[in-house]
Amino acid sequence: MGEIPESHPRRSSLLARQKLVDAAAEGLLADSAMIAHGRGEAFDYLLGEQTSDSARSAIREASARLLTAERPVISVNGNTVVLAGEDLIRVAAVVGCPIEVNLYYRTPERIARLLTRLAEQRASVAGGPAPDGWSEDWAKAVSSVALLGDGADGSIEGLEGARAICCTNGIGSADIVLVPLEDGDRCEALVEMGKQVVVIDLNPLSRTSRMATVTIVDEVTRAATALVDEVVSGHAAQGDWDNRAALSEALDIIAGASAGE
Amino acid sequence: MGEIPESHPRRSSLLARQKLVDAAAEGLLADSAMIAHGRGEAFDYLLGEQTSDSARSAIREASARLLTAERPVISVNGNTVVLAGEDLIRVAAVVGCPIEVNLYYRTPERIARLLTRLAEQRASVAGGPAPDGWSEDWAKAVSSVALLGDGADGSIEGLEGARAICCTNGIGSADIVLVPLEDGDRCEALVEMGKQVVVIDLNPLSRTSRMATVTIVDEVTRAATALVDEVVSGHAAQGDWDNRAALSEALDIIAGASAGE
């Protein structure tokens, strides 16, 4: 798509788009991944392309729940790996949890390619600086992050076919799953299995957003960066979480943008 | 993306998505075409996936202007050909104007492929039934639609590089251009050349929407189908056209959806 000037007001959005175009060419994404990204772009545009106060609260809530869970897991798909893989590896290193590649349109080739990409990202993150506030051995914490998804041996109840496949030692036995960019059916199935589900979804009206335990209405790259800060800070939960109120605040922002406020 | 059940409430949206996935595989689309489609999907979702009253007024206004123009032209890109090619050929047959393939990310291969696809669509439309209300020789009218874009010899003033290229006997000398799914820079350049510009754009806040003479805030497939009916009916213009009011009405619908109305 050509060079993007440093000064372009929508530079981060255009860079994200370019990353996805490149990833599609490398076979990392499902056919419809770019369409899904475009839907997100439109909602992010209406949200002002910034993390709202209510999204920030949701990120803090997600962090507190991940840190206090017994068996947290981060589930990633192609778009998530491409846009936020490194920061989610940082989150996993701090939380001490595995990352599972779990795909709606599952193929062994894409699982393998995404695991390879994640392993590269993990090596890069391990060799880089620790997040501010982290005082332990960073390279060791990062290198300990297990990357799951290959040889998946479990299944998500209530789903059919390839989209039900998961890892027993990952999503299968998790008590909380962070699933950025998840689809509604799977979000619902995970909730019905009794798991807490944290999603990152730019559409506050989507079924995923409405089904989740905690919905972060934010762009996945920004949300993952903010989540790194939160898990390092280690704030406790803020009391009862009202997910409906969080969605309502996101809708107010969109309605405000549409009303020209 | 698998079978789409006849009863699926969002069947037309899913079929459109599948058409684009197929077209991308055939090399008809630019890298970012599916992202652009996704953005449109999100806005259409907020608009209720139906043609609003104000979009219908814009379609009627566009029809009246196309029918009374000296040199109307329909400019199409990959997404437009794939999603609305046949209906735009019907419009061109009734109006008696050429269709020009004009691409933001122009390559000779994509121009050639899209012209081939349009020629196939033209043959199919010519062999099919005339629209209700048409009494002349349909096959002849359709076969007369010129398909331009190859060997482009003109340029759109105020633009640089390949995106400025156009046909002198098409966009170059047009007094009105129907450009579904246009980008803001080109829309602005065409307006600055003194042309009337009719766009079809699902985002009422986009620069394209705000720059155009007449903005149809509607999904391109639905809008093109409605436009066929309008040009056959041949209604006159409705007096002064207030494009700002049309955009404002679309924004009200989106704000209403976001407010849960």
Q: How would you describe what is shown here?
A:
The structure is a homodimer of 261-residue chains. The first copy, chain A, is of the alpha/beta class and 261 residues long. Helix content of chain A is 51%, strand content 10%. Chain A has ten helices and eight strands. The first copy, chain A, has a six-stranded parallel β-sheet with strand order 3-2-1-6-7-8, with helices on both faces. A two-stranded antiparallel sheet of chain A has the order 4-5. In chain A, strand 1, helix 4 and strand 2 form a beta-alpha-beta unit. In chain A, helix 1 runs antiparallel to helix 2 and helix 3 crosses helix 9. The model of chain A has no long low-confidence stretch (mean pLDDT 93). At the A-B interface, helix 1, helix 2 and helix 10 of A face helix 1, helix 2 and helix 10 of B. Chains A, B: Homodimer. Chains A, B: InterPro entries: PPS/PS (IPR002855), PPS/PS_sf (IPR038138). Chains A, B: It comes from Candidatus Thalassarchaeum betae.
